[in-house]
TrEMBL record:
Keyword Ribonucleoprotein assigned: no
Family annotation (SMART domains): HTH_ARAC
Domain HTH araC/xylS-type: 164-262
Keyword Cytoplasm in record: no
Molecular function as annotated in GO: DNA-binding transcription factor activity; sequence-specific DNA binding
Biological classification of the source: Bacteria, Bacillati, Actinomycetota, Actinomycetes, Pseudonocardiales
Protein name: AraC family transcriptional regulator
InterPro entries assigned to the protein according to its UniProt record, in alphabetical order: AraC-bd, Homeodomain-like_sf, HTH-like, HTH_AraC, RmlC-like_jellyroll, Tscrpt_reg_AraC-type_HTH
Length: 273
């Protein structure tokens, strides 16, 4: 990329690298669009398993943990980019943290997404004058179409731009900020208005979103690292590890130790890493 532009790449799973098919929990600091055209097995995203099927699109946000299980001949394309590469604020284009990362394509939708990815791939490989701007435009079009497909599936929640900003802020700052009022101030609304927006878009409260984000980060650390429960409690800014244990069990239904054991046994994580 020319100087000053954020990272961007597109290619097959083999071209982007074997790490894209890693069988152990890992995460990235950039966005990924995964377009699967073939293969079998399970794609696990933040501990939710999704059966691998052709014509499936996953949009993964920075920080999400994912890995592959019992996979066979995964085929498709991988597109990676930084948030700063987008033409506009991504609030209306990308799924809110905690939402489903998956859209299954049907009928004409397959040709539509294939065509856009072909255009992106050609621009990326040819690198003619102005190609970076063309890539940004094509990426914007791709994300708009994916968001339209989300709206066509009632089971996939689509949030407003303000709610997206709130959930992204929580995902980025939950280790240091857990006040609903502080997030509302950052966004420029009252805490009451933020509560109304979150209830309407997600069917829950801002406080519940914050607690869920904190519990999810705890799950990620328990599955992905060998940190002790006490170390994880401190990493998550809990002064009292026993209180962290009670919080985690209240949010997830399991103790931290039980969760780590069960998730690693279920997905054979310890053996794969």
């Amino acid at each position: 990329m020319p100087s000053g532009l954020s990272p961007f790449a597109i290619g097959t799973f083999d071209e982007i690298g074997s790490f894209t098919r890693a069988r152990f929990p890992h995460r990235h600091d950039f966005y990924e669009v995964l377009y699967l055209t073939g293969g079998g097995g399970v794609h696990v995203v933040d501990f939710e398993p999704y059966d691998i099927e052709p014509n499936s699109v996953y949009v993964l946000a920075p920080g999400q943990v994912h890995f592959w299980q019992d996979t066979e001949q995964i085929r498709g394309r991988v597109l990676v980019f930084a948030e700063e590469f987008l033409l506009a604020h991504p609030g209306g284009l990308l799924p809110a943290p905690g939402g489903s990362p998956l859209v299954r394509l049907r009928g004409d939708q397959v040709g539509l997404v294939d065509g856009i990815l072909d255009d992106i791939d050609r621009e990326y490989r040819a690198r003619e004058p102005g190609y970076a701007t063309m890539l940004q435009a094509h990426l914007h079009i791709l994300l708009v179409h994916i968001q339209r497909l989300r709206r066509a599936h009632p089971s996939v929640p689509v949030s407003s731009s303000l709610v997206w900003r709130f959930t992204r802020l929580v995902a980025k700052h939950v280790l240091t900020e857990r006040s609903v009022g502080a997030y509302a101030e950052r966004i420029g609304v009252t805490a009451g208005h933020l509560t109304d927006l979150v209830r309407a878009a997600l069917g829950t409260t801002p406080g519940a979103v914050i607690r869920a984000a904190l519990a999810l980060e705890a799950k990620r650390l328990l599955a992905q690292t060998d940190l002790t429960v006490v170390q994880i409690a401190h990493r998550l800014a809990f002064d009292d590890p026993s209180y962290f244990g009670r919080f985690f069990k209240r949010e997830t239904g399991a103790s931290p130790g039980d969760f780590r054991r069960d998730i690693r046994e279920k997905y054979q994580i310890a053996r794969e890493r």
